[in-house]
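Look over this record as teaching material.
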Amino acid sequence: MLNRPGSVQPPAGETLEIKSFKEQQIAEAAYDSRDRGTRSVALERISGSVGRYHDFDNQFRLRRRASSERLQWIRDAMRQGRNLGPVKLYQIKNEFYVLDGNHRIAAAKELGQDEILAHIVELVPTDNSQQGILYRERAEFADRTKLPVEINVTEVSQYAHLLDQISEHREFLQQGNEKDVAFEEAALDWHKTIYRPLCNIVKKGRLGESFPERTIADLYAYITLHQWKEGRKRRYGIGLEKLIQKDMEAFRKKMGELKDSEYPEMKQGITIFILMNVQARKEIKLLEKIYELEPVREIHSVHGDVDILVKVVLTRDLLSSDAEIISQFVHEKIRQLPGVNSTTTLIPGISKIKEN
């Protein structure tokens, strides 16, 4: 393989170190900070460090010259189910950089975890490039809506269109309601009953395959701008025009009235396996509590790097993607239980099952 001109190659037998936060902050002119609170972050999106980028390679493995005693202690603590608290991360665009918790992230990756709890401070680019303006619009959208998920569009002014929709939806919710509806409350309902259902219809219809450089949020903004705001009908080739309705609130009503019999393919099960690390003194109670959950088919206490193995079969629906259904179950039904320290979710690819 030919190296690109000017690229820096690691010494033989070594891999490149993780990214430097400071270098990226300067390159992106990212100085405007926003506190995003605490939430789970996919480990694969953590790409650099504030001060320890020389100590880890680009897979977050400790380099040979760095001490491994602390890493070994943290690894053992995680295996024993100790609560080590959230790590602290800076976010620049779609990447995260470690302020505190480098060894915890290295240990979590080594133990096969796929995400970690983190307190996040986002640093928004302040330059006047199109990307800089776009990310500031995204930050403003996140500040106003307080949604627990990211919505990423790729064109300037699209966030303003989404904010207008939420404002209109707020007015609709306010009708006949003596209590004032907060903008954040309207945003959450809009996301659940309008934005997410339409996005999932677009995903299931594979409309995105015709626009590989666009996000699902881009397609949502384009479709709703033309259909609901400008009143221009389009044919999308996936039967979307039969579901989208004439306006936003009519679509919301249609989604609320859908019956499973209209979309039998949505009733197919989603099988997942959850590997859990738990506090030893609460393992028996957790086994009993989790076994009572309706989607749980099997649960086992096991020996090794994990403590509990759970087989779950979830039900598909039109209003949610498989990833959202899985995430909602794991976060709301499993991770909130006292005594659960960490989980890893496995989704089968090809399966073969022998009948008894």
Observations:
- Residues 1-14 have pLDDT under 50 and may be disordered.
- The domain at 19-125 is CATH 3.90.1530.10 (Conserved hypothetical protein from pyrococcus furiosus pfu- 392566-001, ParB domain).
